[in-house]
Amino acid sequence: MRYLPLTESDRAAMLARVGVEDIDALFADVPDGALLAGLPDLPRRKGEMEVERVLGRMAARNLPASSVPFFVGAGAYKHHIPASVDHLIQRSEFLTSYTPYQPEIAQGTLQYLFEFQTQVALLTGMEVANASMYDGSTGTAEAVLMAHRVTKRRKAVLSGGLHPHYAEVVRTVSAMAGDEVASLPADVEAREDIVSRIDGETSCVVVQSPDVFGNLRDLRPIAEAAHRHGALLVAVFTEAVSLGLVESPGAQGADIVVGEGQSIGVPLSFGGPYVGLFATRQKFMRQMPGRLCGQTVDAEGRRGFVLTLSTREQHIRRDKATSNICTNSGLCCLAFTIHLSLLGEAGLTRLARINHAGAVKLVDALASLPGVEVLTRAFFNEVTVRLPKPAAEVVETLARQGILAGVPASRLYPGQGLDDLLLIASTEVNTDEDRAALVAALKGALA
Fold first, then answer.
1. How far is the C-alpha of 218 from the C-alpha of 224, rounded, in Å?
2. What pTM does this model have?
3. Does 63 or 421 have the greater pLDDT score?
4. Is 149 exposed, middle or buried (0-12, 13-18, 19+ CB in 10 A)?
5. Less CB within 10 Å around the terminal CB: N or C of the chain?
6. Which CATH superfamily is domain 67-80+345-446 in?
7. What's the rounded Cα separation, in Å, for the pair 411 and 391?
């Protein structure tokens, strides 16, 4: 009873009140493939020391990104984070703070959120940004829902260069709402004709740049086509550092810009938590999900900060309310803000140039290997290469040699005939020695 306070009769009464026969019925909307058939393969019970040993052995099977030459990207990137970032976010007033329910009392929290919004708006070339989302994928789904509200239409067109995990989140959310999603097939070399898929029923077209295969895309013709049909362009990115060098999505005509901010200030952490960035045009501001912090003056004329838009408006807006992204990635967006503040505009541009220069060096070396074809022509710091044998096998071979070579496309697109493709990312943490080690190991594995 210590850990299971409810009796069988308690559970039966609760299920009867809800109107379902058993607990499994509560999970009816979860796809069968996402449900475990049975209990996980773990010991049923162990003492504390034994649990530490079991979990320790499991953790030791991981190959940490910081311990070997690391070229994995595909949506999450290893960048250097100054020690001052972690030092500052671990101060108790930041680390233990919660969503400000009486927001004007938490002036420090509101101020850094206001600065964060300013940074995101400047990076994306947009007029307004919110106080962050959970991550890039859920931010993309929220952008689609917002486009539906703005256009009063219910159909989204997804580029074949959109990260498949992002696309899957959009489809999941859209399925629950009964919205239509038209997903184009994987577009390895950015040759799709997405403009022809936009029509009078289209709410938005969602395009990523750099895309999941590393291609930089010109958003202007897509934005123009979308606007001709009364649709919005949702521009997506997964590598925030690219915004230090590539023309902003806003300058290319995007209406909503969303993406992953993990590259700036947030460690890989085996997959999260991360921080979603969300920005848009001012005319669409009231349809934006989440919170918006604003600047004002107090009764004595001093500078102060408020929640200009709060999702707590849901109490009165009900079905017309935007999504309640409230207890969000606050600590992660603080880390983002501190790191970007330390870099400054010139520092971010220099960091982006270092990333691109390193990627160019790597691409030149890879292109010299027999049987290796570089498919990505216009890129930032990530490319896709075709190998003469299955990429997953090559990655496993190199991992045993202490080199994490990248992400096989077959992991992102299983069963779609992309087994020979490998996504490789090079950031500022990769040295010339790292790149030489990767090229040498690839040459040996492909011989």
1. 11
2. 0.92
3. 421
4. middle
5. N
6. Aspartate Aminotransferase, domain 1 (3.90.1150.10)
7. 10
